[in-house]
Input
Amino acid sequence: MDERLGLALVRSKRKRIFDVVIAATGLLVLAPVLASIGLAVVMDGGWPPLYPQKRIGLGGRPFTLWKFRTMVRRAHAMREDLLPFNESSFPAFKIRRDPRMTRLGRLLRRSSLDELPQLWNVLIGEMSLVGPRPPLPEEVRHYDPIAMYRLTARPGITCTWQVENRHSIRMGFDEWVRKDLAYMENWNLRRDVVLVLRTLHAAAKMTGQ
Output
């Protein structure tokens, strides 16, 4: 076996073990928190509390990403009308004060608590704790070959952007891709641990958008 391929397989196995241990522990320890957030979402008028969204994962395969509901019903259908107000660069789509967001949803977004159900996606192997954020199908249709390379890694709950640029939505898409590719090319387990810890710190400061 090629030495580089063997090393890549060992690294992949280590990353997967790290993901499974942390995701399983997180789901068990945070079960009361997850239940409380779900109840709060329902009381705020969001039913069902979990929102399934089709995303594109490893190898370009679609999967269902889970998150707590933070927007009004038919939010995705309203996206087209809001494209002129996009504050990020195409094909990424972000609005600082998205009118589709519920009051509770804004709090969940700022603290990143809406992402917690994705620990399940990590546990079953559709996502990793750290990796490029999974894009929407309509975004991938506009990817160039360089951006498509992001799909050769398992998508993550958090990434370099989540830590370094979560307070800003104006970073260009090309810069976002560059940060993801740099992470992929220089991966090591220590870096994943550091990014997870930095994400928890950033989430506690509630600087998300």
Q: What stands out?
A: The chain is about 50% helix and 10% strand. Residues 20 and 123 are 5 Å apart (CA to CA). The longest strand covers residues 50-56. The mean pLDDT is 89.
